[in-house]
Structure formats: structure tokens, C-alpha cells
Amino acid sequence: MKNKNKIITGLVLSVFSLIVFIGSNSVAMAEQSSKLYAYGTDTIAGYSALLSTSKGIANKDVEFKVVKPDGVIVRIPTVTNLQGIAKADLYDYHTRRSGIYQIGAYYKGQPEVTNTTFTVYPDKLSLSKSEISSSKRVAAINDDSVYISVALKDKYGNPMEGHGVNLISSRTADSIRNTAENKLTNQNGVINFEIKSPDQGTSVFSVVDISTGAVLDKRIEIAFMESLEYLDGIGGDFNIIPVAHAQDAGPLSSFEITTNPSEILPNKVSSITVTAKDADGATVENYTGEVHFSVTGENSINVTLPEDYEFEAEDLGQHTFSQVLKFPTEGSYKLTVTDLQSLNDAIDGNEVESTIDIEVGTLFDTPTQSSDNAQNESSAPVLLTPVAGTYSQNVQNITGNALPGANLRIFDNDQEIGNTQATLEGKFNYQTSPLQDGTHEIYVVTVDNEGVVSATSSTISITIDTTAPIVEDAQLTPSGQISAGEVVDVKIISEENLSEAALIVNQDISVLTASATDPAAYIATLQAPENAGEYSIDVLLADELGNESTYQDVATLFVDVAPDENETPDQDQDIPDEDDNEGVEGVENNSSDVFGIPPSDVFGLVSYSSNERVTLVWQEASDDGSIANYKIYFGIDPNSLDQEVMTNDDSTTWYIPGLTNGMEYYFAVTAIDNEGLESEELSEVVSDIPFQLESEAEVEERPDTPIGNVDNEVFLRGAAFEERVPNRNTESGPGLFTLIAGTGIASFAARKLSRKKKK
Q1: pLDDT of amino acid 678
Q2: pLDDT of residue 672
Q3: Residue by residue, what is the 3-state secondary structure of 625-645?
Q4: Check: CATH 3.40.50.740 for 473-560?
Q5: What is the pTM of this model?
Q6: Phi-psi label, residue 507: left if phi above 0, alpha if psi -120 to 50, beta otherwise
Q7: DSSP 353-404
Q8: Cα–Cα distance between 260 and 322 in angstroms, integer?
């Protein structure tokens, strides 16, 4: 009995220990599942960064916590998707300071964490924001040293580290010594030079950034004299000699605002001039900030104001906004101009802004202008769109401002293409018929009831380019039959300045690079496949506007296997097919398939948006047999993908047309094999928003090199979602991007990701 009791007691203790073990492990697993790791893609100042988490619990409220280099904390709430992964954008407004950003993510109600970092690199060099200064402005010749300091900055004031700098004097006799140990700018973007001169006179020093070859806007003057002893008794500060006029003014303090004409009338279009001023009223000629207009007063909601504007270096601190200001009714208004950077950085309301009072009088109290020219100028229509540039869309919207109710005629290359009438608010809109490729000079005229022209707008020149690049010629070296593994040079002749070019041979991708000697030639080096046969060469080309085309069978590789490696069968020898063995006793048939196993789940799904469609690319699924095609599920609710479409074949690229621009869609993909079996689970759900970009005119040049890479996805997002790539015109429809799928060609993917700057 005692032994029996011991056995029972032992069993009870064992069961209890097992329960404790399972419980403790459950707690540990729960704790592990509740902990998220956050990741951010490296980016450039002014570009947004993509934030994502490790896999956690699906459909849970999550908050990203980002600590900027200056200690400012940004929190972004979001929700995990069906796979338990949360994603969000850290918009460009928060990434204007370069440096190391700390990031973490946590479920709502959990402790805040920061567990990883990402880097924001400076934007391109700003010639106007970079600085040059000196230890003195007057020095003795020969032994007296002057130290000149150069600080390279981007447009947000971030230091540019690791740049080579040349300091150039206007006098060849001056001695210039770079004092930096590695001859490059330090982590503060600063590099110093020691200057001496054996000759009397004034030297003007200019700064050249070796990395870009650009010359800074600012220069500095140093006066070298034989002796400085007599200056001691004169008094005054002789270490200050004005250099460039841009350095006479201090930092931005206010704006001077003037209107033309000074007397504003209802529904009459006026111009406005904005001048940047320092505290002493001097013009800040090196001002390159961005300004925003606002107005208060009677019926101010209908006032037409200029768009936000970023001053250029050539503006020299003053810019006129021509024929863009209009008040609908008489009354008193307050017009305010605000510097956006100071507004973003302001603490306790220290933003820089200026306001003027505007009295809008009546039409009847104002004398009629005596000058016909002045009258024509004030009543001339103003074109707002299109802006000068090159377009891949051949249908354009011509919009602008004119006198209320004015009859307007639209001209293209001096040929009338249509007419319209301005609204009571003085706005007009006309959509052209499809325009031919080439240059178009567009202007609008105002006519009276008898068709007599009374005023003419300025002329806008645009170029229409909807033609995809073509393959003029394909050359193989060596040509003809080649051996397995042999290296082959391929040259494709097309048009100059292609943005993308690539070859597809035996499902392998090779990027074509522009020839150094022929700008219309693109070359690549291939290695022939190991198996004998004929291999078709396909080509994808894309121009700078995004017009794309694919060409199949532009050339053929004839590959032969050397006789000493593989014995060639006798041509007269009959080689039986596998099917011939069916039913033959003693012959094993290994061609039978294993039925009933569905294909693997699809992974690596990536989306690219364009005009009214989204293109999807994913990794090829595997199966015991073969993949027949893929099924795409999509909709506007990630939890209810209520629409679906089947691809035509096993291509791993497809686009969904007919979508609504500006609406967010969600997508997932499954594979279907040759037995009709479908993947057991959906792929990761991705989302994208179709968009339309009318022009890429005046888009800043951006680096071609991708900045961040997460799970083979390339993200160079931002600095303006108005800087997205133009609409893509495809010739082959779904499957056009097949050559991108499964490859690491970042340059193809990077240009197709959304890049938008938040103003």
C-alpha cells in the first residue's frame, strides 16, 4: 500500500510539474509574441522613410516611436496586417535633419521601446546654404596667416561630410594650404585652409566642391598689406570687409510685400512681389526658403492666392508672382506671407511672417485706364497648366485665370484647337484632343463678341513623347553557333538616354549599360547556358518619361556542347520517348506525378502604382508538378479582398487596370498548379495607391543609387509624392515587368516606388 501511495504521489507531482512547465512556457511565448522589433529604411534628408515591424499579432494597434537626432520624439499609430506586420511612412517633414534615428514599436498599452536605428543622409549640396568665413579680413604680407573655414551644407543645413574642397584665389601668388588631415570635410562639413601672401593687394577666394565641380555662391575677400602697425592707432574694426553682397544682410527677419497695381479691384488679377528682409531692412539675397500665402477678411475663402514657392538662388531674395492674385469682392483683407521652415521649427510662435492690409475697392470708383496696352495686360488670360516640360500624356488640361465670363480661344502652334469661356470666378479649363508627339506652343486669347482678339496670354512650350523606345539592331559577338559556357557580348541599338535597359536569356536577367563611344548603343556580357539548344533573347527598354516596351526574340543564341564532353547520338538511332515505355513489361516509367499536393504559398509580393493601375511582382511558387497560373485577390478593405483575377500563365508579374487614382487598394496572391490545386494561404497583403503625374518638369535631380534595402525591397521614398515617376505606357500589358521578378535589380524597382514631398 505504501508503494502504491508513493507511485500516486509521484504521478501527481509529475503532472503538476508538467502544468507549471507548460504555463511558464506559455507566458514566455506570450511575452515573446508581444515584443516587436522595428526597422526603418535608410534615406536622404527630405525623403520619407519606410517603417516596418517584425512579425507579431495580426490586427493589433501598434505605435512606432522614432527619436530624431535632436531628441525630438515622433509617434505614429498604425495597425498590424494579417501577417502581424505593421508598416508606416515617416514623412519627409520629420527627416530633414541628417543623422542616426532610433526606432521602436510596441502594442498599444505596452511599454515604449526603441531597439534599432536607421540613418538619414544629407541631401545634395546647397550652393547658397554653404558658408565661407575667415579669421581676419586684413593681414600682413609674408608671415601673417589667415585661416579660411568652409562649411558645406545641404538645403536643410545638414553638414556634408567627406567632400573634397578646392579653395581658389584670384591671385596666383597666394599660398593656400589645406589643414585637414585627410583633405576632406569633417563630420560637421567643415574644412580649413591656411592662407599667406607675399604681395600687397586684395585676394578674392572662391570655393569649389570637388565631388560635384560646383562653385559656392559666396566668396570672401582678404586684404594683404605691408604693415598693420599704423591701424592700431586709428581705431575701428578693420577685420570686416564686405565680400559678396549676399553677406551684407543678416538672417531672415521679415518680408516686404507689394502688389501691382497698388489699387486692387474685385475680380481683377494682380501681381505680388515678395522680398526677404533682415532686421535692418536689407534684402537677404541668399534666401532660399519656401513661402506660403494666406488671407483673412470678407469672403476670403474665394480669394485666389499664389501657390507655395521655394526661392531660388537666382531670385536674390525677391520674387514676383505675376497675375495670380484675385479678390472676388470688395472689402478689407489681410494678406500674410509665412516662411515655412521657420513655421516648422518655431517655438512659442517665433515663425517669420509678414502681413499687409489690402483694400479692394469698387470698379465704378476707379478711373478707366487710358493706355490700351495697360488694359490688355491686366485683362490677359494667365495659363496655369500645363507648365513647360515634357509629358508622356498626349491629352492635356489647359487651365488658368481670365476675366469673368471672357470668351477664350486656345491655340497650339498658331492653330486654333478649341474655345471655352471663363467662369464667374475667372477660371477656365479646356481638355485637348490627343496631341501628336513633338513640340507644342500653347497660348490663349480673349476675344470680344465679334471675334476680335483683345488680349493674349504668354506662350507655354511643352513636348509630348508617348513613343516607347524601339530596338533598331541587335548584335552578338561572337555570332553564330557557340559553345556552352562561352562568353558573348550583346549590343542593342536603340535611342539615347534610356532610363532602363535589360536582357532576358533563359530566365536570367542582364542589365544593359550605355556604351561609352555610342550613346545610342547599350551593351551587356552574357555566359552561354550549359545545355545545348536555341535560346531567345528578349529586351526591355524604358525612356526617361517611363514609356516602356518589350521585344521578344530580338536575337537567338545557338549553343552547342563540345563533342569531348557529351557524345552525340547517331542520327539514325531511334531514341524512344518516355511515353513509348508505357505498358512495356520490365521498363520502369518515372514520369508519373505525385497528385494532391498544392503549390507553395506565394511570397515576396511587391506593388508599383501608376495611372489608374497597380503592377504586382512576386517570387515564383514551387510545386511537385508545375505552376499553371496565379490568382490575385484585391479590394479596398484588407480584411475583405472581394475581387479576384486570374493570370494567363505562370508569369510572376501582373497589373490590375481600371483602378481609381487616389484610392488605396489591397492585394494578395496565390498559386494554382496544373492539377487545379491552389496555395493553402494567401501571400502577404500589400497596398498601393494609383496616381497620375502630368509633368516631370522642374523635378530636382535625385540620386539613382537606392538608399535602403529591406527583404530585397528597395525603398527610396519621398521627398515628394509630386516627384513620382511619370505614367508608364506599356505595349505588352500584364507581364511587362516579368524580367524584374526574382532579381536584385534595384534600379528597376526604385523608380517605381512612390516619392512624394509633403509641403
Answers
A1: 93
A2: 94
A3: CCEEEEEEEEECECCECCEEE
A4: no
A5: 0.35
A6: left
A7: EEEEEEEE--STTSPPPS-HHHHHHHH--EEEESPSEEES-SS-EEEEE-ST
A8: 9
